[in-house]
Specification:
136 residues; five-stranded parallel beta sheet; 40% helix; globular
C-alpha cells in the first residue's frame, strides 16, 4: 500500500515515513500543502494528514478533496484528537506520533482500503428474477 504524508512539520513527517517504511508500506511522497498533496495523491491508498497546515487548509479540507477524486483511507495527525471523530475509513493518531499509534492507524486504513477495493471488484448481485434457473 502506498502512503501519502501531508504534514508541514518535517520532524513529524519523517517519523511517520520511517514507521511506515519499517512496516513495509511504500511512500507516495511527503506534501507540505494542499497543492503538493493533490499532485502526489494519484497513486495513493492511504493519506496521513495533519489536521492544521500552515497554508490555512485543514486535514479535513484535504480529505474532502481526496474523497472527491480518489478512494483513500485517511489517518489524521493531531494534537487535539477531540476535534476529529473516527468513522469508517478515518483514523486518528495523536501528536507526537508514536510507532504504535501510527501503525494502528495505517493498518486500519489499509484494511478499510482493501475492503473498498474488493467491493469495487466484486460482481454485482442480480437485482431481478431474470437469472432464475428454469425448472423442468
Amino acid at each position: 500500500m502506498r502512503v501519502l504524508i501531508v504534514e508541514d512539520e518535517p520532524a513529524f513527517a519523517l517519523t511517520v515515513e520511517d514507521i511506515a517504511i519499517a512496516e513495509g508500506f511504500e511512500i507516495a511522497g511527503i506534501a507540505r500543502n494542499t497543492a503538493e498533496a493533490m499532485e502526489l495523491a494519484r497513486e495513493t491508498d492511504i493519506a496521513v494528514l495533519d489536521v492544521r497546515l500552515a497554508d490555512g487548509l485543514t486535514g479535513p479540507d484535504i480529505a474532502a478533496q481526496l474523497a472527491e477524486r480518489f478512494d483513500v483511507g485517511i489517518v489524521y495527525l493531531t494534537g487535539n484528537p477531540d476535534l476529529i471523530s473516527e468513522k469508517e475509513g478515518v483514523h486518528v493518531v495523536v501528536k507526537p506520533p508514536s510507532a504504535a499509534g501510527v501503525l494502528d492507524g495505517l493498518r486500519k486504513a489499509a484494511a478499510w482500503r482493501s475492503r473498498r477495493v474488493r467491493q469495487q471488484l466484486a460482481p454485482d448481485e442480480p437485482t431481478n428474477n431474470a437469472f432464475k434457473p428454469i425448472q423442468h
